[in-house]
Amino acid sequence: MRNRRWKNFFHVEPSKKAELVVGTVSLTINGASVIGTDGSPETGNVFGGGESSTVTGNIDVTLQGSTHVKGDVFGGGNEGAVTGNTEVIIKD
User: Fold this and answer.
1) Residue-range definition of the domain harbouring residue 33
2) CA nearest 63: which of 86, 92, 39?
C-alpha cells in the first residue's frame, strides 16, 4: 500500500511533463522506499532529469537507507539532455 501511495503522489500525466528545467535538481530517496512494481518493466526507473525533459544545470541523485529501486537509476534524463554535471550517490 505504501508503494501505491508514492506512485500516485508523484505520477505526472504524459501531456503535463516538463520540457525544460532550469537550475539545479536535487533528488533524495531514503528510508524504506520501494520504487516500481514487480512484473512491470515500465515502472521502477528513477530519472534525475526526468524522463524526457532537458536540464540546464546540475543534477544530484541520492539513494540511501534501504531504498529498493526495481528499475534503473539515471543521473540525467531518459531522452532529455543535461548541460551541467550529474552525480549519483548510493549510501547506507
Assistant:
1) 2-91
2) 92
- On the CB side of 46, CA atoms within 13 Å amount to 23
The closest of 92, 89, 18 to 59, measured between CA atoms, is 89
Residue whose grid cell is 548510493: 90
The pLDDT tens digits along the chain (92 residues) read 333 344 434 444 555 566 788 888 899 999 889 998 887 777 888 888 877 788 888 999 999 999 999 988 988 888 888 889 999 999 98
In angstroms, what CA-CA distances link 65 with 49, 55, 71, 91? 22, 27, 17, 7
How far apart, in Å, do the first and last CA atoms of the chain sit? 24
pLDDT for 14: 53
Instruction: Judge contact between 60 and 54, C-beta under 8 A.
Output: no
β partners of residue 89: 62
How many domains, in total, are found in the chain?
A: 1
